[in-house]
Amino acid sequence: MEIKEPLSKHHVKRCLIGVAAALVIGASSLATAADIKLRMSAPASATDQRAVAMTAVFGEAVAPFADFEGHWNSSLFKQGTDLEAIARGNLDMTITSAQELAEFIPEFSIFSAGYVHRDAEHQQRVFDADFMAPLKEKTEALLDVKLLSVMYLGRRHLNLRTVQEVKTPEDLKGVKLRMPGSDAWQFLGRALGASPTPMAFAEVYTGLQTGTVDGQDNPLPTSKDAKFYEVTKQIVLTGHLVDLNYIAISKKVFDRLTVDQQVIVQKAADDAAESARQKQLTLEAKLAQFFIDKGMNVYEPDLDAFQSTVQAAYLESDYAKQWPDGLLEKINAL
Ligand code: KDO
């Protein structure tokens, strides 16, 4: 039989101290969970697959220690200003683009060039390749932004409110094509043969409706999600840019996490990107029919003409001069 010693006063005191300490530790770890808020702002709508994955996959995974808060439709910061907001310490996360990064780090313009990435898988391999390390390091050093994962946005196609068919870049002469705000985007519009007009994503529907612009370019899931089919007549399947976005987090915020939390955040971002990528690919494969059913003309133009014109425009441009030697060849060789 076990003989229990009577509890001494000293013993009771020690136990009480132990309980109090446990309560303090418990309270402080709870406080940590509540204290970490990961506020993301992005132009994507709440029903865009990237937003859905960030909320459902990323938000769920980090929930034990952080509150993920997604602010969509550029509701916190205007399109193109999220990176600065992170650099200034006013925002924790965003879904950014190579075109936005190219405003600060010109080398990123290589990913804004038409017909460079071949498909979603190529995009992923490029992001994971060793030659991306200096670009990621530069982003951290200059902007205090860590690029966690690459998200597949999709193949961008022309979507016009005009009815005249477009077969080659010459047919886009004089067409006012809405492009997002930065110079890299305007260059792509010109390389396609159009007259680019800068406009934030949030204003595109009205721009198309009122005729301020003749068209816009986006992947099919984005054009469906934003209901552009209600105010346009045709989709020209140029596939001129296999577009990407990066899941980006403030480096300061990331560095404040414990190593275990950092591992979870990284995995959560990779899983969210993979989930969105698969859904985006599935949607892309079936959406042409959706637009046809809406009464739109959906067709392929002369792809060789588009590809050769766009590639030539980039190779002759000042952008190409800023690409690190041999980078394009390495990307193509992957
Ligand atoms: C757009 O403004 O056309 C664009 O597709 C650019 C992308 O980089 C990205 O910002 C995207 O908009 C938004 O996430 C909305 O889908």
UniProtKB/TrEMBL annotation:
Organism: Enterovibrio norvegicus
Pfam families in UniProt: DctP (PF03480)
Signal peptide: 1-33
TM helices/strands, residue ranges: none
The name this protein goes by in its record: Sialic acid TRAP transporter substrate-binding protein SiaP
InterPro entries for this protein: DctP_fam (IPR018389), TRAP_DctP_sf (IPR038404)
Keyword list, A-Z: Signal
Matches recorded under CDD domains: PBP2_TRAP_Siap (cd13672)
